[in-house]
Design goal:
The chain has two domains: 74 residues, no CATH class; 112 residues. It is 5% helix and 46% strand. The chain starts with a strand and ends with a strand.
Length: 201
Amino acid sequence: MDINSKNIALHVDDDNVALFDRSKDKTGAGLIAWFKRHKVQFGGSDATVDVDLDVVGPNGSIKYDAGEGFLRLTTLPLILSGLSFPLTTVTAKTSAAGYTLTAAEVVGGYVIDATNTGAIAPVMPTVAAVVALIPGWVAGTSFLFTYVNTGNQTVTLTTDASTQWTMTGTMTALTTTTRIYLCRILTAATGVVYGIGTFAN
């Protein structure tokens, strides 16, 4: 039996239950969790158990209750690749008039700005636009966002037009510096951006 969703698939036969990322090879990088009798495998490592099973791995979990006779497989809220590391995209920006960042640029995690004149104030996308790119997000889902200022201007990250983001801490990246932000989702329409550190390029 095979059950398929948009991103995740479950395969069940007489001996095995496997949960995998549909965008990857089901026997390789895309394998999230595998169950065979009383053995469980996460990322190539086996663990032998007795009767009941409750194991959490880097990409998912398997729970088996022999007394109740049920098997439950789950994935972590966020799977961005077949590995336990997020995918990163690099975006180059330049505009003396400023701009609104897209959700893909923020979730991608790395923006380089080479604007050479004036102070600019890039605007965050809405929280709603961001969570639309994060399958299975839950309250507390977080990611880092790096802003590299290589230009001759001051950059101050600002909230979206609907003020769905609360900006906490220092949001400014001075000339030729990099600032790291932590974006934390609270609800489908609210979140917090923390300015957590800066360093020279």
